[in-house]
Design a protein that fits this description.
The protein is an alpha/beta fold and about 400 residues long. About 40% of the residues lie in helices and about 20% in strands. The strands form 3 sheets. The chain has a 7-stranded mixed β-sheet with strand order 4-10-9-8-7-5-6, sandwiched between helices. A 4-stranded mixed β-sheet has the order 1-2-3-13. The protein has a 4-stranded antiparallel β-sheet with strand order 11-12-15-14, covered by helices on one side. The relative contact order is 0.17. The chain binds pyridoxal-5'-phosphate.
Length: about 400
């Protein structure tokens, strides 16, 4: 028996090292990583700039309390603000956390503080915002709520893509904020109909609520823009980030426009580790490298080859998503079998839905790695279709 709590299915592979797009297991077998730790290692494994930054920082100062200042967190907040303000036209402030759930937890608390007297947050069905009690309550997957009742009150879910339903909910409640993924990731790589998100932003503003965008999985170049919200020219009040922010170092961030962020006063929120030097060194190196490489361009270029190749594989009916946040929609609900056959063929992907394989490789993936990965996925598809026929 393992001494780990069984919160995940029994793993079938043990990885021991990685470099770029390649992972190696404990038997020395190599895999192409088309999943990236769920969209985390966007610059690939053991990216030298990030490795060097972590090693140098570990040898200098690994941690001090947020009661004292360090320089790195100001640098990183500045880079995050530069990226978000270039997209929204507004400057803001950043709170650093250690995960996506914590970044969203900050957003949820900020919405209540910035809109006093209101506490309802509207989010969408099939969304995923985290596993803490409040972010689980915001997550629009009622089956995940069942065992943990009562969850914190004040969360209302509306169907994703249905503007009328959102407007009705905004009228029915005193809403502090709306929290939405521009592309639902864990929910199955779901892209809403054009016009939905701008309509949602408008309706949210008309109701006097905060428009909060969860870019934890979609942010930082992955969708072919720095942020998925840019696709339809949105200007959110709050943006949450995590996943690829530290290229594997646990770090999350909640950015809020300056007039919203100022609602927080000392003592309102905090984190022992949030913004600590080791995480910030990794994050600064990650963001500087992403900027230098033009991360969105990398995602767009790789996406064209990858999507075209996926659509050529028998059994894949369509590809959802943008850039390198992709879901291969299968003709049959055999995604679990495809993911495990892919491992046998030396390819890491996952079943995000019974009929959808998630494909989120590093943005730095090379054309020849895409070609080889497609060959392996094709073989995995054939195995799975035979196994299930
Ligand atoms: N928000 C989104 C959109 C996510 O995809 C996830 C994780 O998959 C989270 C929040 C939660 O992030 P974490 O697992 O780091 O708490």
């Amino acid at each position: 028996m393992t001494t780990l709590m069984s919160t995940y299915p029994e793993p079938s592979v043990t990885f021991v090292k990685g470099s770029g797009t390649v992972l190696v297991d404990d038997h020395g077998k190599e895999y192409l990583d088309f999943l990236c730790g769920l969209a985390v290692t966007s610059l690939g494994h053991a990216r030298p700039e990030v490795v060097d930054a972590i090693a140098a920082q570990a040898a200098t100062l690994s941690h001090v309390s947020n009661l004292y200042d360090t320089t790195l967190r100001h640098d990183v907040a500045g880079i995050v603000d530069d990226l978000v303000s270039a997209a929204t036209g507004s400057h803001g402030q950043v709170f650093f956390a250690n995960s996506g759930a914590e970044a969203n937890e900050c957003a949820l608390k900020l919405a209540r503080k910035a809109r006093p007297g209101r506490y309802v947050v509207i989010s969408t069905l099939s969304s995923f915002h985290g596993r803490t009690m409040a972010t689980l309550a915001a997550t629009g997957q009622p089956e995940k709520h069942l065992a943990f009742q009562p969850l914190p009150p004040g969360f209302v879910h509306v169907p994703f893509g249905d503007l009328d339903a959102a407007q009705a909910a905004l009228q029915a409640h005193e809403v502090a904020g709306v929290l939405v993924e521009c592309i639902q990731a864990e929910g199955g790589i779901n892209v809403p109909p054009p016009g939905y998100l701008p309509g949602l932003e408008r309706a949210t503003r008309e109701a006097g609520a905060l428009f909060m965008v969860d870019e934890v999985q979609s942010g930082l170049g992955r969708t072919g823009q720095w942020f998925a919200f840019e696709d339809e020219g949105l200007s959110p009040d709050v943006v949450t980030l995590a996943k690829s922010l530290g290229n594997g170092m646990p770090v999350g961030a909640c950015w809020a426009r300056a007039d919203v962020a100022e609602a927080f006063q000392p003592g309102d929120h905090g984190s022992t580790f949030g913004g600590q030097p080791l995480a910030m060194a990794a994050t600064r190196a990650t963001l500087e490298t992403m900027v230098a490489l033009d991360a969105p361009r990398l995602a767009n270029e790789a996406s064209q080859q990858l999507v075209a190749g996926l659509l050529d594989i028998p059994g894949i009916e369509a590809v959802r998503g943008r850039g390198l946040l992709l879901g291969a929609a299968l003709a049959m609900p055999i995604a679990i079998q495809v993911a495990s056959a892919a491992l046998r063929h030396g390819l890491v992907v996952n079943a995000v839905r019974p009929d959808t394989v998630r494909i989120t490789p590093p943005l730095t993936i090379k054309p020849e790695e895409i070609s080889e990965g497609l060959v392996r996925l094709n073989a995995a598809m054939q195995d799975a279709m035979e196994e299930c026929s």
